[in-house]
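#random but structural
TW: two for the price of one
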Amino acid sequence: MMARLFEGVSPRALLLMGVLLVVLFGAPFVASDYLLTVLILILYFAYIGQAWNIMMGFAGQLSLGHALYVGLGAYTAAALYVHFGIGPWIGLLVAIPVAALAGAFIGFLAFRFKVGGVYFAILTIAVAEFARLGFDHLAWTRGSSGLFLPVAQFSHDDLWQLRGHPEMFYYILLVATLAAFIFCRALLQSRIGYFWLAIREDEEAARATGIDTFRYKMIAVVISAAMTSFAGVIYAFYYNNLFPEQVFHISRSIEIILGPIVGGIGTLFGPILGAFVLTGLAETLTASLNAIGVDLPGAKQVFYGICLLLVILAMPDGIWPWLSRRLGLTERGR
């Protein structure tokens, strides 16, 4: 099964992936506390970028409100933990259906009434903003005052309760990113994946060949929303505080999509590479400015804009397609 998943991938590509995995699994043993924090952030965006890539890169449905699913996953699991003492993994079993239902609701409204393109993107923004305003006034989740998870001193990692050192969260996100990569590869090689690519390239032609475009677009939205909610749960238990303005804001959605765009929309490794490039360089810039005592509000956002502009001008398909051609690698499903 695993051999079939990576059929068509060059030995050089497999070797590079193996080396990368070895480096990533060993990174916490040599990384400083700050570097480990940056790596956790990179893996967070690498995972969530793959979830967004299913909707846009595979099925061609542009979502600019993906922070909605992060917030729903985070608030659902955190509220269950705070009010009822329900652990995050049990809470995840509730958070995933909640986010999936939200995605299905948006998809049904859009696809049933032929809302596509930029109008679909606007709809996703509107629902995310509606959720932000709603949670801002929802007393059960403490509204704008913020929902805080209890934090106790710990001498060991409690994986079941997601209480522990940053290294635990690092390995959780690393395994999740790897699992998402394999899952996306399997999707692209499946019948659903080929239908998505047909819909992305020409929806009318796909419909004319007998593909149920409504059904397969709904599947893409639901899978993407469900995967994203997992990142929200990890976010909540890693930072231990949630504010609607912080979690649901459109700027969070923009941060989610920048990695796949820069790395290469519709590719398997693009979202991961984009997260490493953007987040890594942005955090380096922030650390450098802090080291020399310079405070430039919005510097990170300006940096993101410059990177996006340069990539669009020099490598319109993203960094990964350009890099894979230079290195002689193959990636089927582009």
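TW: number two ↓
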Amino acid sequence: MTRVKINPLTRAHGYLSVELEVEGGRVTDARSSGLLFRGFEQMLRGRAPHDAVYLTQRICGICSSAHAIAAAMALENAFNIEVPQNGHLLRNLIFGADILQNHLRHLYLLAIPDYIMPPEMGPAEARRRGDYRLPEVLDRRIREHYLEALETSGLAHKAVAVFGGKAPHLQSILAGGVTEHVLTDRVMRFQSLLSQIQAFITDKLVPDVESIARYYDDYFNIGAGYGNLLSFGLFPTGTDRNQRVFKAGVIQNGQTGTFFPRLITRETGASWYRGDEGPQPPDRGQSTPFPGRAGAYSWIKAPRYNGEPFEGGPLARMRLAGLYRGGISVMDRLLARAVEAKEIAGLMNGWVRQLVPDRPTISWVDPLPATGSGAGLTDSMRGTLAHWVSVREGRITDYHILTPSAWNLSPRDENGRRGPLEEALVGTPVADETNPLEAGRVVRSYDPCISCAVHVLEKTACAGSGAVPEKGERREKNKTPYN
């Protein structure tokens, strides 16, 4: 048995370490460790409630709109604030554009480089050794699209800014709706950007991912994990925030079921915190950071649904919506993300036409009530996102966040069950233990975001320290890894 440590794993948002046990050419056990602590839940205590919408966006620049919407939903739930139809439509358009920029960046910048031959130049040249199968003409075409995807994701960020004010960390979403008005010039600007993005997704992104799937079809049998899928629902359809275009639900043992928020718990037994022993309701408890805690190996906590590990993301949403009928694997996650990008772009074309000028976009409640508590549950780019807020005497007294990568990349729970990513890594073939690219493909299929997943970076923990880095390249201590 050989231990292989990828630390840090590159082409992921934030500092992620993965440790593998390899025997007989396959992974027999795995641990994933989030190495970045943020502390946003502590920062929010004592702040004005409206601050939650703006501060939580700073958790992550790649999915800031998701946190804005979850925070706004939590406040609306706490104070019974209704959002007008135009407000829901504008939120869906802002959020949809942000999801598209994320899917473009994830697929082309982070995931697809695992399947195409790197150029013979710069730091990428060191990764040319490995399992690359695409014909040269197809390989070259996708590399060209890589650069075009950068430009197209930039267009998506511009689309976010049309009604969001700026991107990332937009300014227009508040409890009650969106502060921007429906103006003809903005609608036309948004439609122009969307048409360019949609054309790239339809003509290039989807065919590129389908081509990769044909040549790497063995990855339909790699990375399945538990097979448990979870969605909180995405894109409200109207004034009822609980009715979503992509409906909430669970898939377990191949069966589709109803989602019940009360069945969510979280654990910290394998995480660097003290307090909160055993499964806890996600909106209670005070976990104190405790780096070096015996038996712990991650800053990420362990969310569970009905006591079981679940993963979320495009695959869960597309399976529940009946828009993707494949299985649960590395390649299924990539294909479902491409399908979702095309589907969301089409939905956005409909939403922008439903906007009505001179109708309200926000229900102003100022000041907010002094006391209340509520939850904001939504799906986001890479899975399920939930914010819980408690307000007393006009100030936030408690705030809790469970992010998609907390679900997907969680450590073991009190029963020793691996997190979804850890379980998905078990059984992965590894042809070269000094170059475990197969494991990298499994990890990146989840679109991991450590910036979101844990809320003090220990320099020595992320600097290589003699570990075997991804793609076989060895570095000296404290050298910055390439992405």
